[in-house]
Design the sequence.
């Protein structure tokens, strides 16, 4: 997915956890960060407290959406996804992408991965991997200004 590309439609979820949102609901008022994670991803679990802090610190200024991207058959267990989400306090909406429909729309190959969209729904920053939260925060602050 190229920078400045519009946010794909949030369709194709096998299930939504913690509520469902649409692209239309996310665009217009505030920027959005969409983060991809997986129950089998150690780095995702390590990064989750940072993502949660982000979500809580910016709750009035930023939409935060999680996408569960399975990496193996074991990752398709919805009860396991719910359990890990609860353990890691993922309270934001979770798009369960068991068929990789949204993953394919984003052309995403990584977990964790972070996509920052401005309030108009255009991609302004992408990063993958466990580190780099300072850079992510910098980019988010840039789209908030």
Sequence:
């Amino acid at each position: 997915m190229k920078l400045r590309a519009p946010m794909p439609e949030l369709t194709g979820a096998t299930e939504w956890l913690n509520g469902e949102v649409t692209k239309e609901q996310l665009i217009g008022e505030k920027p959005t960060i969409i983060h991809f994670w997986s129950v089998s991803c150690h780095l995702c679990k390590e990064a989750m407290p940072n993502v949660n802090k982000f979500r809580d610190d910016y709750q009035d200024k930023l939409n935060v959406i999680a996408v569960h991207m399975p990496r193996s058959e074991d990752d398709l267990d919805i009860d396991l996804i719910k359990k890990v989400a609860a353990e890691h306090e993922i309270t934001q909406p979770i798009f369960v992408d068991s068929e990789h429909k949204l993953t394919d729309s984003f052309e995403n190959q990584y977990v964790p991965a972070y996509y920052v969209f401005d309030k108009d729904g255009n991609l302004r920053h992408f990063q993958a991997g466990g580190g780099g939260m300072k850079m992510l925060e910098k980019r988010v602050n840039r789209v908030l200004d």
Notes: The chain has five helices and six strands. The chain has a mean pLDDT of 95. The CA atoms of residues 16 and 95 lie 5 Å apart.
